[in-house]
């Protein structure tokens, strides 16, 4: 951010480990509601300056997990440490150090957007300049508009601004871009990226694959309250799946010659007349080898594309169900 860094304050104030880079540590978290297991033994780790995304379908337990970490819900069992503090018992101490994006809650419908943000800023000893936040979230034009007259996306962005204005060390973003158009979503992504650069730890939940892939350093995919996979977006989309390079060219090329120039274990096949696939890890060198081979035999490859598994595919493979609602 162009504002002063949050990290100086972070290193000064963490109870239970002043130099700790750990922002969030969750172990064996369990929470049930009337016999329904919402969270069934979850472990999470998040360092300062990182984004951890919880990804899962409706009812997977994302919001329950986030609300426990925020101190709004008590777990049945397990341990949760946020900035070295217990969110249930140390809630007052934690409140000033975390940012929580409330979904429409806490707003006075008649208050103007700018007034609301300045009011939130007034609770902080060292707030971010509200005008800077309004500007970076595209809210300057609606500064004088009452909250109830803002669009859903504008209300979401104002809620995000209110969560950030106190210069938190850690922020919880539950579906931060739900209901936003593409332009607003990109503004929010850029701001989240700056926060990360300032050393803020960010826990976000999302249904959106592109949001998770764009923002997350680490992902935890949850289903029925348990982790079904975790890792970086790249690890998850590569794990268990070969990448593929596909192209079109004249039919019935002699692929033994291509196989011979590729590294061992790569498989080349003509899947339909004139449609070719190379299966294996598609590195820049492999791409160059394939195009050089085409040039050597004077063949123009068209529709050349590299395919990887999407997070949607990963989820489908793991659970047999679609991730989208
Ligand atoms: N206060 C509550 N009382 C009863 N059941 C609840 C409560 N909160 C959550 N649940 C149940 O716990 C499970 C997990 O819900 P949760 O809202 O945490 O999932 P989620 O992954 O955030 O879903 P969504 O993406 O739809 O918000 C669901 O079966 C839900 O119905």
From TrEMBL:
Gene3D superfamilies per record: P-loop containing nucleotide triphosphate hydrolases
ABC transporter domain span: 24-249
Keyword Translocase on entry: yes
Regions annotated as coiled coil: none
Topology versus the membrane: Peripheral membrane protein
Protein localization: Cell membrane
GO BP annotations, alphabetical order: response to antibiotic; transmembrane transport
Keyword Transport among record annotations: yes
Stored InterPro entries: AAA+_ATPase, ABC_transporter-like_ATP-bd, ABC_transporter-like_CS, ABC_transporter_ATP-binding, P-loop_NTPase
One Gene Ontology cellular component annotation held by this UniProt entry: plasma membrane
A Pfam family the protein falls into: ABC_tran
Molecular function GO labels: ATP binding; ATP hydrolysis activity
Alphabetical keyword list: Antibiotic resistance, ATP-binding, Cell membrane, Membrane, Nucleotide-binding, Translocase, Transport
Name of this chain's protein: ABC transporter ATP-binding protein
Record lineage: Bacteria, Bacillati, Actinomycetota, Actinomycetes, Mycobacteriales
């Amino acid at each position: 951010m162009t504002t002063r860094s949050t990290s100086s304050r972070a290193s000064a104030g963490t109870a239970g480990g002043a130099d700790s880079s750990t922002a969030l540590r969750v172990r064996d978290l369990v929470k049930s509601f009337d016999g329904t297991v919402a969270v069934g033994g979850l472990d999470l780790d998040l360092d300062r300056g990182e984004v951890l995304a919880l990804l899962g379908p409706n009812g997977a337990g994302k919001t329950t997990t986030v609300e426990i970490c925020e101190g709004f819900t008590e777990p049945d069992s397990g341990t949760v440490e946020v900035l070295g503090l217990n969110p249930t018992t140390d809630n007052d101490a934690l409140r000033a150090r975390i940012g929580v994006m409330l979904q429409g809650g806490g707003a006075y419908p008649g208050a103007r957007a700018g007034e609301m943000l300045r009011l939130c800023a007034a609770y902080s000893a060292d707030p971010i300049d509200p005008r800077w936040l309004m500007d970076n979230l595209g809210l300057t034009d609606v500064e004088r508009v009452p909250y109830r007259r803002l669009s859903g996306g504008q209300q979401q962005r104002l809620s995000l601004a209110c969560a950030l204005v106190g210069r938190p060390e850690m922020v919880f973003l539950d579906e931060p871009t739900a209901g936003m158009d593409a332009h607003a979503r990109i503004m929010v992504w850029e701001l989240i990226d700056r926060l990360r650069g300032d050393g803020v730890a960010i826990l976000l939940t999302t249904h959106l694959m592109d949001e998770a892939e764009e923002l997350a350093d680490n992902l935890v995919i949850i289903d029925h309250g348990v982790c079904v996979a975790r890792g970086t977006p790249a690890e998850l989309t590569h794990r268990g799946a070969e990448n593929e390079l596909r192209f079109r060219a004249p039919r019935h090329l002699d692929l033994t010659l291509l196989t011979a120039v590729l590294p061992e274990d790569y498989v080349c096949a003509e899947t339909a007349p004139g449609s070719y696939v190379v299966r294996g890890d598609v590195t820049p060198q492999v791409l160059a080898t394939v195009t050089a081979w085409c040039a050597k035999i004077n063949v123009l490859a068209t529709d050349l594309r590299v395919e990887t598994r999407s997070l949607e595919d990963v989820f489908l493979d793991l659970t047999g169900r679609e991730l989208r609602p």
